[in-house]
Amino acid sequence: MKLDLNVDVHHLTRVEGHGNIVVRIQDGKVQEARWDVVETPRYFEAMLLNKHYTAAGILTARICGICSIGHCLASVRASEAAMGVGVPDLAGRLRLLAKHGETLQSHVLHLFFLAAPDFLGLDSALPLMTENPTVFGLAARLKGLGNRICDAVAGRTTHPVSIQVGGMGARPDPTVLRSLRQQIEAAVPDLAATAEVFAGFDIPDFERETEFVSLKADGQYPWIGGRVVSTDGVDRDEHEYRELTHEYLNENNTSKWCKLSRDAFAVGALARFNNNHAALHPAARKVAADLNLSPVSHNPFHCNLAQLVECVHVAHESIALIDEILAAPADAPIMADFEPRAGEGISAVEVPRGILYHRYVYDEDGRITEADCVIPTTQNNANIHLDMGALAAQFATRGMTDQKLELLCSMLVRAYDPCISCSVH
Amino acid sequence: MRYLGIEPIRPRVGVFSFTCCEGCVLQLANKEETLGPFLEAIQVVNFREISTEKGADYEIALVEGSISRDDEVERLRQIRDQAKVLVALGTCAVFGGVNRLKDVFSPQEANRIVYGDQSRETAPIRAVHEVVPVDLSIPGCPISKVELERIVQHVALDLPWQFPEYPVCVECKQRFTVCMFDKGQLCLGPLTRAGCDAPCPAGGLGCWGCRGPAADPNHAEFDALVARRGFSRAQVQDRLSFFGGFPTEGSEEKP
Ligand code: SF4
Ligand code: SF4
Ligand code: SF4
Question: All domains of chain A, ordered by start, with CATH?
Fold first, then answer.
């Protein structure tokens, strides 16, 4: 029997940005399977030239509406590295708390609004409002909590204002922090309920072995700076990011592609989980066990589950962070004293979708003369592309239809939670 | 849902993104406390970022982002043909936004810097109104969801809407924020249109003018103030040109 299948998705929905899927199967053989990013380029690396250090974080936050805190943080860290600025302890804690708020917000947005509709047979999460108000309520409450943490600590949920070169521009009010602490504790049952919802989903059975790359921190789950490790045995400093990403151009894409030990690698929640499972909070490890998720998983659809595990982890870590911040003296500094100076700085931060690198060179007036940003989705694009080929080959069997294959391919891309306008920047 | 005995209009809305960070449409799904009622006040029929439904029967088009490629011009024209009301959503759509900073370079030069010898298609940035007529412009990078909710309430009840004409300073005073100038920092608040509730000064950052000029900004007084406080022309110019909302030095035309 002849098996011919065609998938042609122009501007995939429920992802951030514009990308296309093309799959052609003839006689049961994959002729073509492509993931192409067609987003309009924005040229941030040009825009950054000649910008003052006070503008770099504000500008690069605008690379991404979803992970603007991550971008701003990677940016100010790179500037601080270039100018030899040490950030006060309390400011470091506040930054991590803001980042946890963003991780929660971003993961919950992806889990409920972008990924879950496929498992529920819906076009979007909007019908849940009336059809399943319990689930919609979970999503709205958890996302709202993430956003309120960002608001209180970074000054705004999208495009933070308090994260600045040298530290933080403001310290949140203790009463606000105490209230957030209560809200996070109250969210623990919501997270458990979310895990139950996702445990009931039928995750596609698909694996393709690849290299998982993430940050590594001493005994802790990694978020800001440190070593970069991979499941293929790579272990390097964040400063060696060029040797870790090898950016190159692909003719069908406005986003660049990356590689490390093989043709492609993966970053993001699943990569972090695979490399740092032992450093998770025990409550997060338990959720992983309940979801049958264990390292090293080579099923890209498990990224959804790894995100959920991370939500539990950041919730618990945020409670501890708030306690530390509340215990800090009222006059503890949140901003370093420094003068701009010439130099080069590189910074790696784990943002929701994977490792983000910023590198700047400054002149003595504190203006940028060279800039480079390597985005998580840029690192994932080649891996998504190769997954697409393997997925098409595995599922090109009798009974498969264009429609079913289109859904599977779309779910595959969505599992990576790509941030496409980011990847083009 | 009835309000004061009036059955509100529940407009069919399409949401579309062009060259930008998609942060403005993300605000549509934020402010979760009132997300339910907000989504009931409108009917979302086309919103690629969160829905696979691709309805073509929208009356209101919310358009975020600026225009930087021919295929975007084509897509925007089609949206204009369909929509009764086209709303430019956010600073990128209204003024061109930070994207305009690319245009200090020619497209060739920008390409050389980012893509080396394999250039990609790009044109000088245009705001939405430079390509098609716009019925309502909502500034902000990102837009304020609180303000958007107010606008939607007005639309639903068929009431006229007006943006504040006064500058951001008024909102700073309302929330008792210590003035950034008194902390030795620069701020464009005196020139910039209010409506954001001044989140930047409250978070320890002087305003960068993302909402564009207030109704009648007093540039002379502002110039005197910044000179008195010892800020350079270059520092002020960095901010005025940042979001594309203020006329740039040397250009006569208001963007
Ligand atoms: S105006 Fe700002 S937040 Fe909105 S899309 Fe443009 S860059 Fe993003
Ligand atoms: S901080 Fe800025 S906006 Fe606020 S009062 Fe001072 S000058 Fe005006
Ligand atoms: S304070 Fe200024 S920069 Fe900040 S949101 Fe308001 S107008 Fe925009």
Answer: 54-202+320-339 (1.10.645.10)
